[in-house]
Write a structure and sequence with these properties.
By secondary structure, the protein is an alpha/beta fold. It contains eight helices and twelve strands. The termini are far apart. Belongs to the Ap4A hydrolase family.
Length: about 270
């Protein structure tokens, strides 16, 4: 049995199939962990959702920021007719796929290893991270899920406090786990810089360059500009997004051996 952690699909269904074939993936014995952002950017978000959902218990997936963007647009009735999301909501199984995606967690954990789309604050231990993620998951599953999604977007608050409440608390948790790249030594989030490490604003560093008090292994996607690398990391952080939707590659990390397998993108190379 092997567990493969797979980077952001972003609608690149053909490459996902290529990767599963390269791995000789067998859902009867193997498990696929997907770091989120199944949809948007690439050519076939609908097929990606169907493929992952069809794997059943052989696949575990966390929500990414693009997945949440889709949920916000779909639940709010704001899907543009020619957008990447229109084919999903108009499909015969679109409602079931939407419900399935909304029920995905923000974290997946095995002992000291935790998968999350973007990262964790250095001060959040694994137990706390799972507990905070569960608060968001409960909001997505609750009767007021529509109101939660309608109020989700925003950059504030940009610092964690244990006494944060309501939407401020939930929005901050989501922003850390699905959007974070650079933070300050005081834990302030910064969302304007989205490229590589050289784009860090003054006074900010990538979140994985701050030490943790535990020996956790953190698996994440979200940051294609890293090209699967975490130079200068002070924690065991393993980047999986290698820019498939931008002409890079789609990557799988075998948890048991640490071996990486990549298949080339079929998408045009980003200039």
């Amino acid at each position: 049995m092997s567990t493969y952690v797979i980077g952001d699909l972003h609608g690149c269904h053909a490459e996902f199939v290529d990767l599963l074939e390269a791995l000789s993936f067998d859902p009867r014995r193997d498990c696929a962990w997907l770091v989120g952002d199944l949809v948007n950017r690439g050519p076939d978000s609908l097929a990606c959702l169907r493929e992952v959902r069809a794997l059943g218990d052989a696949a575990r997936c966390v929500l990414g920021n693009h997945d949440l963007h889709f949920l916000v647009a779909a639940r709010g009735g704001r899907i543009k007719p020619r957008s990447a999301f229109a084919s999903i909501v108009n499909a015969a199984d679109g409602g079931a796929l939407l419900d399935w995606l909304q029920s995905r967690p923000l974290t997946v954990r095995r002992e000291r290893t935790l998968m999350v789309h973007a990262g964790l604050l250095p001060e959040w231990g694994l137990d706390q991270a799972q507990s905070l993620a569960a608060e968001v998951e409960a909001a997505l599953a609750g009767e007021q899920a529509g109101d939660f999604l309608a109020r989700l977007f925003g950059d504030q608050p940009d610092r964690w406090r244990d006494d944060l409440e309501g939407m401020d608390r939930l929005r901050f948790i989501v922003n850390v786990m699905t959007r974070m790249r650079f933070i300050s030594p005081g834990g302030r989030l910064e969302f304007t810089a989205k490229r590589g490490l050289a784009s860090a604003p003054e006074g900010f560093k990538p979140w994985f360059r701050f030490p943790r008090e535990d020996d956790a292994t953190l698996l994440f996607g979200h940051w294609a500009a890293l090209e699967g690398q975490t130079p200068g990391a002070r924690v065991d952080a393993r980047a999986l997004d290698t820019g498939c939707a931008w002409g890079g590659s789609l990557t799988a990390l075998e948890l048991e051996t640490g071996q990486r397998t990549r298949v080339p993108s079929r998408q045009p190379q980003e200039a």
